């Protein structure tokens, strides 16, 4: 099952095209793409009878942000050994957690304003919560995941790492710094949802290429860890971490510039495409 935000309305992708969920369900389910997660189990049962489209990767141009107003955004740092090594730190024994503020979220295509000279890319798999809860065991975690999407954890490194205390959440929350999309794909569409190819390109050049099976903490482990502290709510999203290849890890460091085209792809989900533009200080 693949759902999307088409012109602000929730659609289910079917073999005959995008099905407007509110109209097709005769008002049973909302047109608001965010609200569907509050009744996820019922929606999933209904959607299975609507001739869902077969698995296929999706391009970004038509669609908006598929999870436009999550109540909580969790983000995981250093979740690939190679990224921890390029960052000069030991791989973590517990997941490092921060947040991106909701105003940073944007859709899968368009322009992103550069607020400074040290904006970095980070391709990430995003997990969307369908059924919330506390104390969710890892063995049951996939039952709580509505679907997976492509994400970018864009980071202004100067702000993020400014002493005396790093400001991860602020440095990663400028407008447009949280692209998600182009669709949300239910876990049952993947042969193995814990092993997906992730790729990031800048101006066509591959800068990151990995598989999510290389994550230190899998999605089930992250769900268990997070729900052991905070109640996970329907429609929450989890940025699961980035592999090696970020600009900060280059010698010398390399950052995004105005005119750069950033492409972010996860196999089985689709591609996001954004163009960088100059800001007041960019």
Largest sheet: 10 strands, mixed
**Average pLDDT metric:** 96
Structural class: alpha+beta
Question: What is the helix tally?
Answer: 6
**CATH architecture name of the largest domain:** Alpha-Beta Complex
InterPro entries: FAH, Fumarylacetoacetase-like_C, Fumarylacetoacetase_C_sf
Protein name: Fumarylacetoacetate hydrolase
Pfam families: FAA_hydrolase
Family: Belongs to the FAH family.
Features:
282 residues; alpha+beta; Fumarylacetoacetate hydrolase, domain 2; ten-stranded mixed β-sheet; five-stranded mixed β-sheet; 6 helices; 17 strands; 31% strand
Model description:
The relative contact order is 0.22. Strand 16 (about 260-265) and strand 17 (about 270-280) form a beta hairpin. Strands 1, 2, 3, 4, 5, 6, 9, 10, 12 and 15 form a ten-stranded mixed beta sheet that branches. Strands 7-17-16-13-14 form a five-stranded mixed beta sheet, with no helix packed on it. A two-stranded antiparallel ribbon has the order 8-11. The protein is an alpha+beta fold and about 280 residues long. The chain starts with a strand and ends with a strand. The protein has six helices and 17 strands. Helix content is about 10%, strand content about 30%. It has helices at about 20-25, 40-45, 80-85, 155-160, 170, 220-225; strands at about 1-5, 10-15, 15-20, 75, 95-100, 105, 110-115, 120, 125-130, 145-150, 155, 180-185, 195-200, 205-210, 235-240, 260-265, 270-280. It has two domains: about 1-55, no CATH class; about 60-280, Fumarylacetoacetate hydrolase, domain 2 (Alpha-Beta Complex), CATH 3.90.850.
């Amino acid at each position: 099952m693949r759902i999307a935000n088409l012109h602000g309305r929730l659609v289910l992708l079917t073999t005959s095209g995008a099905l407007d969920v509110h109209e097709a369900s005769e008002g049973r389910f909302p047109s608001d793409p965010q609200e569907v997660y509050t009744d996820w189990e019922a929606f999933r049962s209904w959607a299975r009878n609507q001739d869902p489209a077969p698995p296929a990767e999706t391009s970004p141009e038509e669609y908006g942000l598929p999870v436009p107003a999550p109540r909580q955004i969790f983000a995981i740092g250093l979740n690939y050994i190679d990224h921890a090594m390029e960052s000069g730190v030991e791989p973590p024994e517990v997941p490092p957690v921060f947040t991106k503020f909701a105003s940073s979220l944007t859709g899968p295509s368009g322009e992103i304003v550069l607020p400074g000279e040290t904006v970095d890319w980070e391709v990430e798999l995003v997990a969307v919560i369908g059924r919330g809860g506390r104390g969710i065991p890892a063995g049951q975690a996939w039952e709580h995941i509505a679907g997976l999407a492509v994400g970018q954890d864009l980071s202004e490194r100067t702000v993020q790492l400014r002493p005396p205390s790093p400001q991860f959440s602020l440095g990663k929350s400028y407008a447009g710094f949280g692209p998600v999309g182009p669709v949300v794909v239910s876990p049952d569409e993947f042969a193995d949802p814990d092993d997906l190819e992730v790729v990031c390109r800048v101006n066509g050049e591959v800068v990151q290429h990995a598989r999510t099976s290389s994550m230190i903490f899998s999605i089930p482990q992250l769900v268990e860890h997070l729900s052991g502290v905070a109640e996970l709510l329907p429609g929450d999203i989890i940025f699961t971490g980035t592999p090696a290849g970020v600009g900060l890890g280059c010698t010398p460091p390399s950052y995004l510039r105005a005119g750069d085209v950033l492409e972010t792809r996860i196999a089985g989900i689709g591609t996001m495409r954004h163009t960088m533009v100059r800001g007041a200080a960019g």
